[in-house]
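Pipeline run #58 for the internal structure catalog. This entry was flagged by the ingest filter as a single-chain record with no existing model, so it goes straight to prediction. Upstream metadata was stripped on purpose; only the residue string is passed forward. Reviewer on rotation: M.T. Logging verbosity set to normal.
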Amino acid sequence: MNKAELKLYLETTFPTCKVSETFDFPLLIVNQNELLEVATKLKESKETLFDFLFCQTAVDKTNHFEVVYHLNSTIYRHDLEIKVMVEDMDNGKIESVYSLWKAAEYFENEIFDMFGIRFKNHPHLRRMILGEEWVGFPLRKDYTDERMLTK
């Protein structure tokens, strides 16, 4: 399936999602409450077989977060980017995709560590880079490091 065919498939299969494209990949913008259902279909459908989550990150857009997923089908050799908006900047929560792609365990821990977004049904969500004693989330736009202000 080429990029245009994949885009058409996404538009037809997921009518509640917005489909566009990035520089490299088709982009699927998914409602937060549909994430797991859409991701499961993308992984298990014989038309797509997105079996590899090769990147998962977040972006602070000042008034909301975007959680970004990059998927690949090692069978069909096509790629896809998914974005999900998380509106709650203080207590952001989103469903974990660990049940689909085990690599999400580390990606989601890093996102939690750096942005404070929690992942529901994650097997062991924790701060893995900065440590439990660290205060704040350094990749948020509102973060300030008090140690740097005293120098």
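catalog note: The chain has a mean pLDDT of 94.
catalog note: Residues 60 and 140 are 6 Å apart (CA to CA).
status: ready for reviewer M.T.
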